[in-house]
Amino acid sequence: MSRRPKTWVAVTAAVAVVTAAVVFLSLHTLAQADSWSSIGGFLTALVTVAVSGVAWARRSRSEAAAGPRRARGGWRVFNIGNGVVFTGDNARNRVTVEQRERTDPD
After folding, report:
1. Ramachandran area for residue 43 (φ above 0: left; ψ -120 to 50: alpha; else beta)
2. Once rounded to an integer, what is the mean pLDDT over residues 80-103?
3. What is the enclosing helix (H) or strand (E) of 98?
């Protein structure tokens, strides 16, 4: 199953839950709705913590199985018209700045 249908299923489920909660809370008095909203907020926080923990564990496991990651990026050279040249390696955050003489072709 591709990622796009999973996303649409999740968005549809979230919209359905929010709509159901609004309808449910609108049918109660303000005091009852406040109580139910507090319970709903607490349950939402618990679900958020659980999902974050599962995502973290799965990511850690997959990164450990994949071994060390290869650094992204490579040497980049930026030449500015006044003779200043910036070179850098994005993988190690190393940047060199040089002042070069201008060599204009005659």
Report:
1. alpha
2. 60
3. strand 94-99
